[in-house]
Each structure stands twice: as C-alpha cells, then as structure tokens.
Description:
Blueprint: E1 2-11, E2 14-24, E3 29-33, H1 40-46, E4 55-60, E5 63-64, H2 71-77, E6 78-81, H3 93-103, H4 109-122, H5 138-150, E7 156-160, H6 168-183, E8 187-191, H7 195-201, E9 204-209, E10 212-217, H8 219-224, H9 229-236
Parallel strand pairs: 3-8, 3-9, 6-7, 7-8
Antiparallel strand pairs: 1-2, 1-4, 4-5, 9-10
Amino acid sequence: xxxxxxxxxxxxxxxxxxxxxxxxxxxxxxxxxxxxxxxxxxxxxxxxxxxxxxxxxxxxxxxxxxxxxxxxxxxxxxxxxxxxxxxxxxxxxxxxxxxxxxxxxxxxxxxxxxxxxxxxxxxxxxxxxxxxxxxxxxxxxxxxxxxxxxxxxxxxxxxxxxxxxxxxxxxxxxxxxxxxxxxxxxxxxxxxxxxxxxxxxxxxxxxxxxxxxxxxxxxxxxxxxxxxxxxxxxxxxxxxx
Length: 241
C-alpha cells in the first residue's frame, strides 16, 4: 500500500502540488488525468523522490519515505517508465536491462542476463538483445524500458505518459504489455492523455487540476457521470472516449 498525505511541491514561488491525499492499494491500477501543466507528472515523480516534495508524506507499506532512506532501494520498489524511454544509447539492449540489478547487487551478471533474456522472449524481442536503442522503433524501446523496470521486481510501477512519444500503430504493443503486467497483480499508476485506454484499463481514475485532486472514482463514475464541472468541461473536449 502507498499512502500520500498532504503532498505539496513548490518550484520557487510556484505551487505545483497543493496538498494531495491519496491511498493506492495493492493491485490498484490508477489512471491520472487532467489538463497539461496541472501537476500530474510532478505528482508521479514525487512518489519515488525523483522530485523531492516540499512537504507532506509518502508512506510505503507503513514506512514513511525520506531523503535519508536508500533511494536506490526505494526506486527498486517503485519502478518508473518515462515518456522518452531514458535508455542509455551507448549500451546494448541487454546491458541496459541488466545494469541496475547487477549494480545494486540484486543479481549477479549471469542470473541477470538469464532473467533479461527470459523477459525479452516474453515480448518477442530476444533477437534485439545486442542492438542499441537507436536501432529500435519507439514501441520496441518503450517495451525494453518496461522490462528494464520489471527486472527489479518492483511493488509498484509508475508510468509517465508511456505512449505519448509513439506513433499510433506502436501504442498497441506497449498497452498490450501493460495489460499483461496487470494480469499478474502489479500495482500501477499511469499518467496519460490516452483517455480510452485509461477508461478501459484502470480500476480508479484521479482527475487533477491546478495541483489538487478535483475528483476521483471508478472509470464509469469519472467518464460517464462526473460530478465536478471542471471534469465535465475537460471531458467534453476529449474525442477518444
């Protein structure tokens, strides 16, 4: 379980997060939606301290996270997949995947390599293990980024706009992998503008605007019967739901 209490984040005088309260239970698939610049990505990055909150608490399985903790251990438990993949372009696919588990001594190189190849087989990319990221399509790179996070065996996976950098035909192969991960019970928090995917895939939806949670509920409640006028206005302008 991940509990967020009164989370605030300022950049100078700009208040980006103004007091977020949220409980994420094991197995939840949380979709975070809202207008650009509302604080969605900042909120996501604050959960594993890629952005250090100005105040408030992030509590993972009963333990409050702070900067005195081992942040590498935290980021193993709370994996993250980025919009722009964040693969190392000077390293092969295989080396990208095994770097963190070997460096953090979670596995030796032989075991990490075997596990990486097993994961690559699952997404039909074993033949790309010796390629460099620049030689792959966007969809292939994003799937590599996902299994790079998975090899760390996280408790929770965070996805920050995982499909927004992809051509439309590549989005399906990434969302298919996310669905397969969800079947295994992975807790997931997803920031996305792909409304149809959020509506179909997530168990709960959070609408953020101006640094606050405006409304939350099931996909049906948010997309079919929103209560807040701001949510109604936002969804009225969305075409893909």
